[in-house]
Design brief:
Length: about 850
């Protein structure tokens, strides 16, 4: 903090508007001796001074003695969370200790897991794929938070890939209870139990065929290289490129293959097979858009890669059972040739982010930015990842599957939501080629946590945002992503409320400040921006926005109904995004009900209306109903949004509440409405076999179920590859239980029906590809609590000849010099080996392989460089 908070304005009035200080020393002296009361006394004068003294075009020069002092420090104000964060993930030392414990583990028969180091493991070995905190039971947390109970026991969720087991298995365990300090020593001394984790799944056994990434892609790459090598000349001729590094090459990345494979999911229906459609695509920037007219369907079911085989291949709508058959048609001249792709790789720049086109007027200037002249207005406990702002407070946690979650979300001291967490992000494609029509991505499986990227300061988040790290412990070792989460306050740029009137107290406005928590995941082609925005009236806006590359397809006339041409031979494919969120509401306690409000039309006859308009009055009326049965709580928003869904506590009324026996519904029960924002959609296609049971949450706008420890998530890591028999079948949550005055969870979808357009090229825009829902108080309060805000103005109507005066509650915006912006920097991913030693920084191609995974399968013979995980030397 500077000793001159606002030298110019605070001091000048004593000496008249034109007076200027001669020396800084005097200013210091003055600041130190004048009391706060004196500042307030002069406040009205100051405001007028501002407009007079700082005229348009006046620029303070270096030797101007009234150069403002420095603004208050903008770094976060440290705080201590009221309780420890019981959801926080393990740090690197804790994860290493747990990993060591697993390595040394022996069961009652003296058998261990025979784990292979994650660095070297292939699908055929046993290895650790996840170590993560497991959320404690809510009852334990509430006892700790609300009734001074013990801090809940901690458990670790462990996922093992057991490629050596017979049959091979994906095994999940809970390890615990963990000692309060986790180290090799404390773990070996603790009475730990390793129990199978089953209770959170409707189908607990996960078949090995449903695994997502190969632990080591070398087998897949070798297999594909074997398939494609004989087609080298044909692809060069037909597609303008080759797959693989070519014969004998193989070791260098300097001349990478010009063609790659992109794979689809699901790999299976119920686990009985593991098959993949692979489309060839150009290996140039924006490769996702540059799909080529050749597709392969391969069977990768066997645990022996030698038994993998090609099922069929498709070129220009001609189907071939083998590559030989294709080659024969190619050589004997019966092959119907497709057009050649758009342009040679070397000329490809249209899909990159380099600036394009002509400069716009004045665009050489930097645009405006927000500055907190008076310093930040939020507090953070960085160790406990706890944040508070303007009456709001919450904890953060971070996990492999879906990244960020918010916990114990309170407004003015009252818990509103126990948990806010994204559950699944689904993308379903259509098309007239094998790839599009078979693609259903469920991004939980790929890991929206491990694909969370460092944020670009000044672009992804404002310059002043506080950046927080995120940590995961997976088959890639520990990934510590700096600047993964940003939190910041912003001016919404509009008043939250306002009015102009003429009686006392009628005129004024409240500033619409908001507090945002943001992360961005780049899952292959797409970038998903997760936003949680807290507002002064108690509203939380949950929003998802998308950018990055469309999934492209090869254009021909038959694709007209399934997308939009964005280039001569490329198109964007039509698809639905549905992103499911869990909102565990606790409205005035955990006993909550779902009130469905609908607007109905009625015709009434009222004695006071007579002939000129007729006696019939047609009008709308509000019909309130409590949905009492879970089976009736799979819901769509009413047509034309004629209604609302509100989570209420029927036993807790606001000041105006009352009870009517007739309807047995408490009016003005305290509640929070689930208010649809932008594009509150659900899935269009409800009957596909590829989405049969694994995305049932996506088939309704929202659903409300009784909260259960056994139903923590609407999806699972492996739902993606098991549409017919998923580990979590959401419909099984809805089994006819009462949901009246019970602890309730609302499962709400956001999404977009993405109809591609040329302007999605090179990348999709976050202004249109966005969806939101607002959780907003509905008789939760007795009036608008944002009226508490001091950042508000009350105007007094003047008498003739006088001026309007404004009362701003004594809140003054400092006139000060904001700190210089830091030089651009972008953090390098910090990695740790499984033993906790720091990992080596990755090379570009290694980062790319990690990030694009099944989207960019290089057919390669080079085992050493082919592992799709963090690099090691
Ligand atoms: C991937 O697996 C192959 C075959 O077992 C092995 O030779 C290679 O070392 C592995 N790669 C890495 C990076 O571990
Ligand atoms: C343990 O795993 C290694 C490597 O995966 C394997 O070679 C060995 O046979 C396994 N041992 C047993 C007892 O299964
Ligand atoms: C590819 O073409 C070259 C040159 O025409 C020829 O030497 C080579 O044998 C061909 N390879 C295959 C696999 O047909
Ligand atoms: C050319 O090859 C295709 C594919 O094997 C075959 O079906 C067709 O009969 C062949 N035609 C001639 C004229 O050889
Ligand atoms: C309504 O409120 C009263 C008093 O708070 C409470 O006893 C009752 O259970 C509530 N619910 C209904 C359906 O009346
Ligand atoms: C909910 O509805 C189902 C189906 O109508 C019924 O079987 C069940 O008993 C109901 N549950 C309760 C708690 O009333
Ligand atoms: Cu999209």
């Amino acid at each position: 903090m500077s000793v001159f908070p606002a030298a110019k304005e605070d001091l000048s009035p004593l000496f008249g508007c034109a007076a200027r200080f001669k020396t800084r020393r005097f200013a210091i002296f003055f600041v130190l001796t004048v009391s706060a009361a004196a500042f307030l006394l002069f406040a009205p004068g100051l405001r007028q001074l501002r407009s007079l003294d700082i005229g348009v075009g006046e620029v303070a020069s270096v030797d101007d003695p009234v150069v403002p002092g420095r603004c208050a420090d903008t770094s976060a104000i440290p705080a201590t969370a009221p309780h420890e964060n019981v959801w926080k993930n393990f740090d690197v030392h804790e994860a290493v200790a747990i990993r060591r414990w697993l390595w040394a583990y022996k069961d009652a028969n003296g058998r261990g897991f025979n784990l292979t180091s994650e660095t070297a493991a292939t699908d055929l070995d046993n290895s650790i794929s996840l170590i993560e905190t497991f959320s404690p039971p809510k009852a334990d947390v509430l006892a700790y938070f609300d009734h001074d109970g013990e801090s809940p026991q901690r458990f670790a969720k462990i996922v093992l890939m057991l490629g050596r087991a017979s049959p091979p298995a994906i095994s999940q365990y809970l390890l615990g209870p963990l000692p309060s300090i986790i180290s090799a020593l404390t773990l070996s001394a603790a009475p730990l139990e390793l129990r199978p984790l089953k209770h959170i799944y409707t189908r607990p056994d996960v078949p090995y065929t449903a695994r997502i990434f190969p632990q080591n892609v070398s087998y897949t790459e070798k297999f594909l290289l074997g398939l494609m090598a004989p087609l080298h000349n044909a692809t060069q001729d037909l597609l303008g490129g080759v797959v693989g590094w070519g014969s004998g090459a193989g070791q260098d990345f300097i001349s990478p293959p010009t063609i790659l494979f992109s794979g689809t999911t699901p790999f299976s229906y119920d686990g009985s097979f593991r098959r993949m459609w692979l489309q060839l695509k150009q290996n140039t920037p924006g490769s996702y858009l540059k799909m080529l007219d050749m597709n392969l369907y391969v069977d990768l079911t066997s645990m022996d890669p030698a038994e993998w085989y090609l099922i069929r291949m498709v070129y220009n709508r001609q189907v071939f059972a083998t590559t030989e058959e294709f080659l024969e048609a190619y050589t004997n001249g019966t092959l119907k040739r497709s057009t050649r792709p758009d342009e040679p790789a070397s000329e490809d720049t249209w899909a990159g982010r380099e600036r394009k086109g002509t400069k716009r007027d004045l665009d050489e200037r930097a645009g405006p930015r927000q500055v907190s002249f008076n310093g930040p207005r939020f507090r953070v406990d960085e160790d406990n990842q706890w944040v508070s702002w303007m009456g709001w407070s919450f904890y953060l946690s971070f996990a492999r599957d879906m990244g960020l979650s918010l916990w114990d979300v309170r407004f003015r001291g009252e818990r509103i939501l126990y948990e806010i967490s994204p559950q699944e992000a689904l993308a379903v494609y259509s098309g007239s080629d094998p790839h599009q029509g078979s693609t259903v991505f469920l991004d939980r499986g790929f890991g929206m946590g491990i694909t969370t990227r460092s944020l670009i300061v000044g672009y992804d988040c404002p310059y002043e945002a506080l950046m927080l790290p995120a940590i995961t412990h997976t088959e890639s070792g520990t990934l510590l992503r700096q600047d993964a989460i940003c939190v910041f306050e912003r001016d919404s740029g509009k008043p939250l409320s306002r009015h102009t009137g003429y009686l006392r107290g009628e005129t004024g406005a409240t500033k619409g400040y908001e507090f945002v928590v943001r992360t961005i995941s780049t899952v292959g082609n797409y970038d998903y921006m997760f936003d949680y925005t807290f507002q002064l009236d108690g509203t939380i806006e949950v929003r998802i926005s998308a950018s990055g590359y469309l999934q492209g397809a090869w254009w021909d006339d038959t694709q007209m109904s399934y997308g939009t041409k964005i280039r001569d031979t490329y198109m964007g494919s039509v698809h639905d995004h549905v992103i499911n969120y869990k909102f565990d509401f606790d409205i005035a306690g955990t006993r909550n009900s779902l009130m469905a409000i609908s607007l109905e039309n009625e015709v009434v006859q009222l004695p006071w209306f007579e002939d000129d308009w007729g006696q019939d009055v047609r009008q709308q009326k509000i019909v309130r109903k409590i949905v009492t049965n879970e089976s009736e709580a799979l819901l769509d928003y009413p047509k034309n949004y004629e209604g609302a869904y509100v989570i209420v506590n029927q036993e807790e009324l606001n000041r105006w509440g009352y009870r009517t026996d007739a309807l047995l519904i408490n009016r003005s029960a305290r509640g929070y409405a689930i208010h649809p924002g932008m594009s509150p959609i659900r899935l269009t296609n409800l009957d596909s076999k590829r989405t049969e049971n694994n995305v049932n949450f996506a088939k309704h706008h929202l659903a409300v179920s009784r909260r259960k420890e056994s139903e923590p998530c609407s999806s699972s890591t492996w739902n993606i590859n098991l549409p017919g028999a998923p580990p979590v079948d959401f419909y099984k949550f809805f089994d006819g239980e009462s949901i009246e005055q019970e602890d309730l969870t609302a499962w709400v979808n956001l999404g977009t029906h993405h109809i591609p357009r040329a302007e999605d090229s090179p990348m999709t825009l976050t202004n249109i590809a966005t969806s939101s829902v607002l959780l907003t108080p509905f008789n939760f309060n007795d009036w608008d609590p944002a009226m508490e805000s001091m950042n508000a103005i009350l105007l007094t109507v003047p008498e003739p000849g006088e001026e309007w005066t404004g009362d701003e509650n004594g809140v003054e915006i400092e006139y000060c010099l904001p700190p210089r912006l830091k030089k651009f920097s972008y953090p390098v991913l910090t990695t740790f080996e499984e033993d906790g030693t720091p990992g080596d920084p990755a090379r570009v191609h290694q980062m790319r392989r990690q990030a694009e995974s099944y989207h960019a399968i290089f057919a390669a013979s080079d085992f050493q460089t082919s592992k799709a995980i963090q690099p090691r030397t």
